């Protein structure tokens, strides 16, 4: 089985958003130093708090090989050997309505713990047309490694 790595299809978009939030935050700090903050300055400071979360998702990597699934993010790592995995499914997160959503692949182990793969993923804001094919490939690899039909 040849190893395959998945990276978020939304990576460039998310990094672009991180850049915008960073510039906005730096300008907001400058405005605070000069002493005339307004609503947009406060908003810029609030957006700075999202940068670590967005960067963590943008730089995430999922590696699938003959041993199992390994996930790497800047602030965390998870792995699951094929025989330790009980289920691989799609976790749909709704943003308060059925129109806005994110779909992530969630791996559940036999001991009940689970972890989310940073890639592949798809959302209403940024569609990954290959999401279903990638999910099928990961599931097929799991079935082959464990002898499931």
E-strand count: 7
- Gyration radius, to the nearest Å? 19 Å
- Strand order across the largest sheet: 1-2-3-4
List the secondary-structure elements in sequence, H or E: EHHHEEEEEEH
Q: Spans of 5+ residues with little confidence (pLDDT < 50)?
A: none
Strand content bin: 25-35%
Helix/sheet category: alpha+beta
Q: Largest beta sheet, briefly?
A: 4 strands, antiparallel
Gap from first CA to last CA = 17 Å
Count of discrete alpha- or pi-helical segments spanning 4 or more residues: 4
Protein name: PH domain-containing protein
Organism: Streptomyces niveus
Keywords: Membrane, Transmembrane, Transmembrane helix
Could you describe the 3D structure shown?
This protein is of the alpha+beta class. The chain is 39% helix and 32% strand. It is built from four helices and seven strands. It has helices spanning 11-34, 39-48, 51-58, 131-146; strands at residues 4-6, 61-64, 68-73, 76-81, 85-94, 101-109, 114-123. A four-stranded antiparallel β-sheet has the order 1-2-3-4. A three-stranded antiparallel β-sheet has the order 5-6-7, covered by helices on one side. The mean pLDDT is 89. It comes from Streptomyces niveus. This is PH domain-containing protein. The chain crosses the membrane at residues 12-33, 39-59. Keywords: Membrane, Transmembrane, Transmembrane helix.
């Amino acid at each position: 089985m040849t190893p395959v790595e998945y990276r978020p299809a939304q990576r460039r978009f998310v990094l672009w958003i991180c850049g915008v939030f960073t510039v906005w935050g730096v300008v907001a700090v400058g405005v605070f130093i000069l002493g005339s903050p307004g609503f947009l300055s406060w908003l810029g400071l609030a957006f700075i708090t999202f940068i670590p979360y967005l960067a963590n998702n943008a730089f995430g990597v999922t590696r699938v090989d003959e041993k199992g699934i390994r996930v790497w993010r800047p602030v965390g790592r998870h792995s699951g050997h094929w025989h330790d995995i009980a289920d691989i499914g799609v976790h749909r997160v709704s943003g308060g309505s059925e129109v806005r959503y994110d779909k992530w692949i969630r791996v559940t182990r036999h001991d009940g713990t689970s972890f989310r793969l940073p890639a592949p993923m798809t959302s209403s804001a940024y569609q990954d047309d290959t999401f279903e094919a990638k999910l099928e490939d990961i599931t097929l690899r799991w079935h082959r490694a464990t002898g499931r039909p």
